[in-house]
Amino acid sequence: MGRDRPYLISMSDKVNLAAKLALFSDHFSPRTVATLNDYKVDVVKIQGEFVWHAHADTDDFFLVLKGQLEIELRDRTVVLEEGEVFVVPRGVEHCPRARREAHVLLIEPLGTVNTGDAAGSELTAAEQMI
Amino acid sequence: MGRDRPYLISMSDKVNLAAKLALFSDHFSPRTVATLNDYKVDVVKIQGEFVWHAHADTDDFFLVLKGQLEIELRDRTVVLEEGEVFVVPRGVEHCPRARREAHVLLIEPLGTVNTGDAAGSELTAAEQMI
């Protein structure tokens, strides 16, 4: 496995996103369920408010699978319902939050820290395969 | 815009996938609804059988949004229901098909030809923003 492929996903695995989400209950702690080249495909449960952060080197993809996700930007809030996508451009400060638990699909380059330039926050999570 | 960013998506746009899918009815003709770095996020309607092909340089991400998608591989068939993901590894021959219309989210590097090494097939589609 090369440096850009730290996880080995068996080709035989299809991934049921709801089944993966049923395996954990903590919030703001993404689990990687697949890789796509040097990107990770994560599911995460969000409830409450995350931390303001930006990713200098990458856009940040959100797809809401269940519930409602608010992505606060400095000048407005993007409200995403189930089946809606928003891509936060690189370098743009944002703060995800949800009043009630939301389930979200994230896609980011492998190695991307969930808290971006706020790494070191208590919300910073290690990459976890599930 | 650099070569790797041929589409400009306004940051103000969130994307409702079902609404985008309601805008067209043809099959096997992906529409790009967002970009993520140098990747395109596409929605596509699939009905019937596509063409056998492989992508030498990239994995191929499928998420079923509606219906059922079969991804034929040379040795077996992966059957994906709504909310299920499969990543076809680079270089692996596959043939997507659906008995009834399925709606699918695809993520691939910009410039990836939908028919891969079968480019020139009548099913080869130009990249289209929607």
Give me the secondary-structure topology.
Two copies of one chain form a homodimer.
Chain A (H helix, E strand, L loop, with lengths): L14 E2 H5 L9 E6 L2 E11 L10 E7 L2 E5 L3 E4 L3 E5 L5 E16 L21
Antiparallel strand pairs in A: 2-3, 3-8, 4-7, 4-8, 5-6, 5-8
Write a structural description.
- With 130 residues, chain A is mainly beta.
- Chain A is built from one helix and eight strands; from the N terminus they run βαβββββββ.
- The first copy, chain A, has one helix at 17-21, and strands spanning 15-16, 31-36, 39-49, 60-66, 69-73, 77-80, 84-88, 94-109.
- In chain A, strands 2, 3, 4, 5, 6, 7 and 8 form a seven-stranded antiparallel sheet that branches.
- In chain A, strand 2 (31-36) and strand 3 form a beta hairpin.
- Chains A and B meet through strand 1, strand 2, strand 4, strand 6 and strand 7 of A and strand 1, strand 2, strand 4, strand 6 and strand 7 of B.
- Strand 7 of chain A pairs antiparallel with strand 1 of chain B, so a sheet runs across the interface.
